[in-house]
Amino acid sequence: MWARWAAAVLAFAMGVSGQRKPVYRVGGDVVPPKVLNKVEPVYTPEAQDARVQGTVLLSIVVSEEGRAEEIRVIKPLGSGLDERAAAAVEQWAFQPGAKRGNPVRVFATVEVNFRLSTAPPARQPAEIAWLMELARRQDPAGMFALAREYGAGKKIARDEKRADELIRAAANLKHGPAMFELGSRQLMTRQGEETAWKLIHEAADLGSAHAQQFLGDRYSTGIGVSEDSERSRQYYRRCASSGLASCQYQLAESLFAKDGATKAEKLQAFAWALLAQTKGTEPSNEIAEAIRVLSAEDRSAVDQIQRRLESK
């Protein structure tokens, strides 16, 4: 009997607490809410490029705590501005509406205005203007290069949000360097690590030398992946072949230090080391000494390998 009575009381309490409080309309003894603080909306690149201006009309419920809830678009503008308007209003602070002096939930409508500056746009350097045109054409390499410019903030006003949008767009279009940038960022912040590794591996397969070098390093040390010296050398070889001197040096070191390395592998190591040296990356003392004591025949073979590597 006691158990049934307790369960009934608990169910009643949960039912009452789970009910939504009523929403009032302004009029009579219901006082309207007032805006205390506005957050200005942010233009989307699409709307800015298309020179879209106007007003988004939103229906909201202002909570007893003075926050906008149940936001709905009544009069849209499109070009992504409706979503930007709602995101801005979510951050507004209100003095809540009241009924007989007590805060209550109240219906309201708010306008969010989008107006472009009347000042003439600043003249962009020819290089930036060309990158913007490439980005408009959905060229992934152009998008990624423009993202770098927005991130650096030297030739164009710094805009990290726009840079991130462009990197993500280029990555979606399977641009290897952008995919590596996005994947390495996710690894650093530990957000979606499995997806991050997939992005980096795919970037390496698509020819990103920096992704290849990154994976060469990770498979060499076993950080984040299972240690695999042979797989490490495969990635080093790919970025070394693309002309990256640091990869050429690392491949030379890996081949030279390999357990049971054949004479052919040693000679390749020397050739890669000498090739990196031509680009200012000096070989280690051990490799430099091993090259110094080579026989004339072996040194000739190394020179031939180096010439073949240079011609690739």
Work out the helicity level: 55-70%
Q: Give me the count of strands.
A: 9
Could you tell me the radius of gyration in angstroms? 31 Å
CATH class of the domain at 18-114: Alpha Beta
Tell me about the biggest sheet? 4 strands, mixed
Structural class of the helices, strands and pairings?
A: alpha+beta
- Strand neighbour order, sheet with most strands: 1-9-4-5
Return the CATH topology of the domain at 18-114: TolA/TonB C-terminal domain
The chain-level mean pLDDT equals 88
Order of helices and strands: HEEEHEEHEEEEHHHHHHHHHHH
Mass-distribution shape = elongated
Keywords, please?
56% helix, 13% strand, 312 residues, TolA/TonB C-terminal domain, 3-stranded antiparallel beta sheet, single chain
Summarize, please.
It is built from 14 helices and 9 strands.
Explained architecture:
This protein has 312 residues and is α+β, with helices and mostly antiparallel strands. Among the domains are: 18-114, TonB (TolA/TonB C-terminal domain, 2-Layer Sandwich), CATH 3.30.2420.10; 251-312, no CATH class. 56% of the residues lie in helices and 13% in strands. The protein contains 14 helices and nine strands. Strand 7 and strand 8 (102-103) form a beta hairpin. Helix 6 crosses helix 7. The radius of gyration is 31 Å and the shape is elongated.
